[in-house]
Each structure stands twice: as structure tokens, then as C-alpha cells.
């Protein structure tokens, strides 16, 4: 059925949102600490967020194109 998400898609969306939240919280924490460069932790969290977004359709906020 068009528009209905599978359980896998729902989980991928949850994972993507959690990865984005972790990245944003880390960025805020580093900014408040006066860190203005990209730290190894930022790179790790950014990579995880990008990998999570690649599993979600761009129609649902991710970067996955087509099926």
C-alpha cells in the first residue's frame, strides 16, 4: 500500500532521529565549551547520522533515493 511504512522503515526513522539528536546535542555542548573545530566525537556522530539517514527515504527526511 502506498505511503504505509514497514516496521523496518519505522525503525530506520527512529534511528535517524536519535542519531541527529545525539549529533546536535554534542554540537551544542562543544559550542558552549568554546570548541570551534570539528572534534573526533563530532566526526563519529556525524558519520553515524549520515549512515542512519542513508537508510531512510528522502520523502521521510533521509537521503535514500529510490528503492
Structural features, described:
This protein is mostly helical. It is 60% helix and 0% strand. The chain has two helices and no strands. Helix 1 (7-32) runs antiparallel to helix 2 (40-53). The chain is elongated and about 45 Å long. The model has no long low-confidence stretch (mean pLDDT 93). Residues 1-39 are annotated as: Disordered.
Question: How do the helices and strands line up, and which of them pair or pack?
Answer:
Blueprint: H1 7-32, H2 40-53
Region (Disordered): 1-39
Features:
mainly alpha; 60% helix; 67 residues; single chain
In short:
Residues 1-39 are annotated as: Disordered. With 67 residues, the chain is mainly alpha-helical. Helices cover 60% and strands 0% of the residues.
**What is the helix/strand order?**
HH
Low-pLDDT runs of 5+ residues are: none
Please report the total strand number as a whole number: 0
Helix proportion range: 55-70%
Coarse structural class:
mainly alpha
The average pLDDT value, as a whole number, equals: 93
Amino acid at each position: 500500500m502506498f505511503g504505509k511504512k514497514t516496521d523496518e522503515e519505522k525503525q530506520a526513522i527512529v534511528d535517524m532521529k536519535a542519531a541527529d539528536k545525539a549529533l546536535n546535542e554534542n554540537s551544542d555542548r562543544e559550542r558552549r565549551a568554546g570548541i570551534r573545530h570539528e572534534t573526533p566525537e563530532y566526526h563519529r556522530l556525524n558519520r553515524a547520522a549520515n549512515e542512519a539517514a542513508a537508510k531512510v527515504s528522502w520523502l521521510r527526511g533521509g537521503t535514500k533515493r529510490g528503492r
